[in-house]
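Lab notebook, bench 4. We co-purified these components, and the gel suggests they stay together. Before we commit to crystallization screens, I want a quick structural picture of the whole thing.
Request: model the full complex, all chains together.
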Amino acid sequence: GAVVSQHPSWVICKSGTSVKIECRSLDFQATTMFWYRQFPKQSLMLMATSNEGSKATYEQGVEKDKFLINHASLTLSTLTVTSAHPEDSSFYICSAPDRGHGGYTFGSGTRLTVV
Amino acid sequence: QQQVKQSPQSLIVQKGGIPIINCAYENTAFDYFPWYQQFPGKGPALLIAIRPDVSEKKEGRFTISFNKSAKQFSLHIMDSQPGDSATYFCAASTYTGFQKLVFGTGTRLLVSP
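Here is the predicted assembly.
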């Protein structure tokens, strides 16, 4: 089946620095990538939708200048958390629709801890 | 309209029991209803999904029951095992165009030995 490879699996950064999270579709073309955020013991909250070659669409309440999304190719989408603060500490997950097989494939997630 | 309501929030069953998790939706445009299993520190993994043209779908020990008129669907896990202990999420979307998934709030399942 379709695979989305997400890196890094975990990262610790200092407050004020930026962190980049990558998601790659390994065996299919991901024209769309969904980015989620998940707090402990909570559900997945959609942050933004990126489409290859165009600007991302952000959900209400998500700061687009803080969470920069780039989807420059059909196999790579990145999320950059800029000027990270402790409240940005969370589990970030990407997901892409697999149009060939139907359904959505999720990355393994990135645990971000800002200290 | 975009919400998917999931219950119960947590569930404890004994090994071999049949936990049942329920979800309800409002948006009649939804036509794709997947269930995901998530272990701590991992991304969600698709268990099983159903479209509205059938009322039940079974894959291995997992069964989805779908009631279109009531706008409800549920997950049954047959012969549950301790390894099934995880968080389960229902979701809904519109299949055509692969619109964003709307997730339920999740159910933490514990299967005791």
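Chain B has a mean pLDDT of 94. Worth comparing against the SEC data before the next meeting. The longest strand of chain B covers residues 86-92.
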